[in-house]
Amino acid sequence: MRYALISDIHSNLEAFHSTLEDIEKQQVEKICCLGDLVGYGPNPVECVDLMLSLQKKGKLEVCLPGNHDQAAIFGSEGFNFMAQEAIEWTGDLLERSGALASERLDFLGEMTQPQARVFQKDELLFVHGSPRNFLNEYVFEEDVEDFKKLEDIFTSVSRKFSSKYCFMGHTHVPGIFVDNKVAGKYEYHSQKDIAENLGGKFSLGDDMLLVNVGSVGQPRDGNPQSCYVILDYEPQREGNYIEYRRIDYDVAKTLEAFDNVRRSSDKLHVFLAERIKEGR
Fold it and tell me: Are 119 and 113 in contact (CB under 8 A)?
């Protein structure tokens, strides 16, 4: 089975379109979205509609909620100023989005129900944040030095969920944490390291993994290209692997969409547009 794992689209329609175009070329059977379809970006209505179309075509395995999806429905407590203003604008726009507003809000509302925040299949676990906090916990590269934190997270994967490989988003930084039992330590491989030194693919073997799939709409690893993961997996099969994909998209068109919004609203701050040019 070939899955496309996408996350953190953040209302970036051009990035979403280009990523889906690449997915079409990869013989993918199902798409898993790990959350944050909306927030930050200028095209929330169109992105929700595009995700809905994937669901109606039977291409969507699951669409998990992210913290921004949750905030669009239930409020943005705890967000920083820019994120709060952007998600409030997003929620208002969705509520005023015409005849299909109810369908769009219902889709996000169903996503954000507590029972919909985690997805399991075979030895695979899918969340937005982490297995300990599905919506809000960040697991950053530097956490490879935090033995207690990673031990607790990996234990949650294995004992609470009886899983081996956990896939997540939220940080917008693609990379893989490895529980190397033989060496007795945790390791981290960035997407860049995997591309340059490991042939672009990472095997799913005996070690437990935490895999951050990166961000489609707002990468933060210094690379402005959209990022997603191909997961090629069958239970009990040797040779299962993941492959990161980096995709060019029309950044200028997304910046134009930001400009169009700012002609009538100051809720999408300039920084949110500037950061996608540099992938930060």
Answer: no
- Cβ contacts of residue 262 below 8 Å, gap of 6+? 268, 270
Share of the chain above pLDDT 70, in %: 100
Which pLDDT tens digit goes with each residue over 27-71?
999 999 999 999 999 999 999 999 999 999 999 999 999 999 999
pLDDT at 77 over 90: no
Q: How far apart are CA 135 and CA 151, in angstroms?
A: 19
Measured between alpha carbons, how far is 229 from 32 in angstroms, rounded to an integer? 10
Residue listed under structure tokens 């002609």? 263
One-letter amino acid for residue 111 of the chain: M
The rounded distance, in Å, linking the Cα atoms of 73 and 94 is 10
Compute the distance between CA of residue 189 and CA of residue 38 in angstroms, rounded to an integer: 28
Task: Identify the band that residue 184 occupies on the pLDDT scale cut at 50, 70 and 90.
Answer: confident
- 182-215 burial, b for 16+ CB within 10 Å, e for fewer? eeeebebbbbeebeeeeeeebebeebbbbbbbbb
State both tokens at 2. Answer: 């070939």
Closest CA to 177 of 162, 161, 193: 193
Nearest alpha carbon to residue 207 among 189, 222, 220, 193: 189
Q: What is the pLDDT of residues 9-28, one digit of tens each?
A: 999 999 999 999 999 999 99
* Spatial CA neighbour of 113 closest among 69, 160, 76: 69
